């Protein structure tokens, strides 16, 4: 009978047949166990909303532009409706700033309106390079 000799040198090959299965299981495990965090929305409780505490000097109506955001998110600049989607807010504020160099923008918003609406208008005011923005608050009685 013939003798079979075994090789005494260990082989350097790494078995890779199951790496695809292992990587798939690891991927599946991390996808299932990961908690997806929603974007956090800026929220201020009503008890912490600011109130005016002292008398402030009045500014002439012709030197101001009043921006009001309603509960439904409608934007009114000096009682004329505007939308955030078009560039009309930027153009209007730039034109008003050219007319009145000391323009003061009075910003009012309904206390229950979404912060996203306020943020969108603030970005448009930033695009228009509006610098003198005042947030009007409710007077505490």
Order of helices and strands: HEEEEHEHEE
The CATH topology of the domain at 55-139 corresponds to: Nucleotidyltransferase, domain 5
Largest β sheet strand count, sense and barrel closure: 5 strands, mixed
Helix content: 25-40%
Uncertain parts: none
What portion of residues belong to β-strands?
Answer: 15-25%
Dominant shape = rod-shaped
**N- to C-terminal distance:** 111 Å
What is the mean pLDDT? 81
**Number of E-state strands:** 7
User: Which architecture of the domain at 55-139 does the CATH hierarchy give at level 2?
Assistant: 2-Layer Sandwich
Radius of gyration: 32 Å
State the name of the first-level CATH class of the domain at 55-139: Alpha Beta
Structural class of the secondary elements? alpha/beta
Count of runs of 4 or more consecutive helical residues: 3
């Amino acid at each position: 009978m013939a003798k079979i000799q075994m090789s005494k040198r260990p082989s350097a090959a790494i078995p890779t047949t199951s790496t695809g299965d292992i990587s798939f299981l690891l991927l599946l495990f991390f996808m299932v166990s990961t908690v997806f965090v929603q974007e956090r929305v800026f929220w201020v409780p009503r008890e912490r909303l600011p109130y005016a505490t002292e008398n402030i000097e009045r500014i002439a109506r012709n030197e101001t532009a009043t921006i009001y955001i309603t509960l439904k998110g409608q934007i009114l600049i000096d009682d004329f409706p505007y939308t955030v989607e078009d560039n009309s807010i930027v153009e209007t504020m730039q034109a008003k700033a050219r007319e009145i160099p000391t323009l003061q923008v009075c910003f009012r918003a309904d206390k229950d309106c979404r912060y996203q609406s306020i943020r969108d208008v603030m970005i448009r005011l930033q695009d228009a390079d509006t610098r003198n923005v005042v947030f009007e608050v409710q007077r505490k009685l």
